[in-house]
TrEMBL record:
Family as reported in the entry's similarity comment: Belongs to the LysR transcriptional regulatory family.
The organism of origin for this protein: Cupriavidus basilensis
This protein's UniProt keywords: DNA-binding, Transcription, Transcription regulation
GO molecular function: DNA binding; DNA-binding transcription factor activity
Listed Gene3D superfamilies: 3.40.190.290, Winged helix-like DNA-binding domain superfamily/Winged helix DNA-binding domain
Statement: the UniProt record of this protein carries the keyword Transcription: yes
Any one GO cellular component localisation term in the record: cytosol
Keyword Transcription regulation: yes
Protein name as catalogued: Chromosome initiation inhibitor
Domain HTH lysR-type: 12-69
Length: 311
């Protein structure tokens, strides 16, 4: 390991890593060389040198092109991380020179937005008004991919959805209670406590199978002696869910309670008095294990910790 590291530190060139990324994008040595403004022979030599340094072939050659093998996938992932980090370095340097501040990219699950992320970002913007902030709201699984690629500084979500949760540093922040919601003018009775069996006549808006709330609904229906509805509408979009609920008196869905309360206060949705049997889902701060956090990411994490600390 030490000998390989010494070789890489002394001989590795960024041009070789750029070539790997181009090969992964184009699947052809000729096209990758053209994209890199290199001759094909020079690109072939650069790849051979890199494979020699790593003492492993990185691609499988076939009539259909070049495909990365397991070593290639590994090296390409780190090549993309290095390229992204260098791009971020250049952007941060340019922003500091121009007085604009810097850049922070954060991913978040839906339920953490109203009460966890937004207050922390409000405090951050008050302290750093020139900071550029990018927010990605998606499933934890998709955001972990963006975190792996260096496109996000941190994720507010779940690490256990990954096949390799040990690759991440995880710090729990709190629970994500879930509510059953309908449009404000929905026909469901008000006041009395309801069970999932009472909702059997309504059509469900559900989340895709890989999302935790899909599994939660499945468990709740199973405990009520019901199966998943065959005529369900599937979407991961909060906007689609809220819009459809608001316009129909026959639809029902799940939303994180913090989000549901936000729309209920605006009289767009109504939270039904349905008691959940399942354990509340936990979420937290997810970062790359061994990665280096920017100053902005470090500050946001401190604010998130403070905001979720008990009074």
């Amino acid at each position: 390991m030490k000998a390989t590291l010494d070789v890489l530190m002394s001989r590795l060139r960024m041009k070789q890593l750029q070539l790997l990324i181009a090969l992964d994008d184009h699947k052809s040595l000729h096209q990758a060389a053209s994209a890199m403004a290199m001759t094909q022979s020079a690109a072939s030599k650069a790849l051979q040198e890199l494979e020699g340094m790593l003492d492993a072939p990185l691609f499988e050659r076939s009539k259909t092109g070049m495909r990365p093998n397991q070593f290639g996938h590994c090296v390409i992932r780190y090549a993309r991380l290095l390229a992204t980090d260098l791009t971020s370095l250049c952007q941060d340097m340019a922003e500091i020179r121009s007085g604009r501040g810097g850049h922070l990219a954060v991913g978040t699950i839906m339920g953490a937005v109203p009460q966890v992320l937004v207050p922390a970002l409000d405090a951050m913007q008050a302290d750093q008004p020139n900071l550029s902030i990018e927010i990605v709201e998606d499933t934890s699984l998709r955001m972990l991919t963006l975190l792996d690629d260096g496109r996000l500084d941190l994720v507010i979500g779940r690490a256990l959805v990954s096949d390799q949760p040990a690759s991440y540093q995880y710090e729990p922040l709190g629970d994500e209670p879930i509510s059953v919601v309908v449009g404000y003018a929905h026909a469901a009775p008000r006041g009395k406590e309801l069970g999932f069996a009472d909702l059997a006549g309504y059509r469900w808006i559900v989340y895709p199978g890989q999302m935790p709330m899909h599994a939660l609904l499945q468990r709740e229906l199973d405990m009520a002696g019901l199966g998943m509805p065959p005529n369900a509408i599937s979407t991961s979009s909060t906007f689609v869910t809220v819009t459809m609920l608001q316009r129909s008196a026959r639809l029902v869905s799940l939303l994180p309670t913090s989000v549901a309360e936000l729309f209920a206060r605006q009289k767009l949705l109504r939270i039904l008095p349905v008691r959940m049997q399942s354990r509340q889902q936990t979420f937290g701060i997810v970062t790359r294990r061994g990665g280096t956090l920017s100053a902005a990411a470090g500050q946001l994490i401190k604010l998130l910790r403070a905001g979720c600390s008990p009074a």
